[in-house]
Amino acid sequence: MRNRFEAQLEELNTELIRMGGLIEASxxxxxKALIEQDREQAEKAILADIGIDEKEKEIESLCLxxxxxxxxxxxxxxxxxxALKMITDMERIGDQAADISExxxxxxxxxxxxxxxxxxxxxGATIKMVSDSIDAFVRKDLExxxxxxxxxxxxxxxxxxxKNDLIALIHRDPDTGGQALDLLMIAKYFERIGDHAVxxxxxxxxxxxxxxxxxxx
Length: 217
Fold this sequence. Notes:
about 85% helix, elongated, single chain, mainly alpha, Methane Monooxygenase Hydroxylase, Chain G, domain 1
């Protein structure tokens, strides 16, 4: 019985990796759509959100099956509970990649009011955070989870840079205000993706240690 349970836990890891791959690809498509003003890439990211939603349901079903059909010990309960929390944040990351892509479509036919530099850096940092947070869960790597949480400071600093640059641009040329606000919204979505990666990392820590900042044990 335990061997079967371990096999199902391994399946859970595999499915989480697959969902992680989907959201990483979705973010990458959204970034490419934005930088290259490529509507096709943007539409690809929007469509990918459907697959991400379906994967969330599959993993949720697997977790519930593990809880109902097996008799998990406390450590297993923490792992399954963490996975259920993680997929909620992962699904929201997919939503935000789609939101970025929708704005990218809107901006695809007009020249940018400034060169995009900091926003792509934010995107790269958030993709790394997402990838590392899922790897930390699969590898049960507490140090990697902590590094994801620390990396959020980098994303937050980049967001402040984007915000200040765009505010200065609007002050110099009020006619740029509309697009500047769209770019600021995109940066905010990337900041939120970073926040979701932190949430995932916090649940990874819970699955390993049994401690979470919002959970009283």
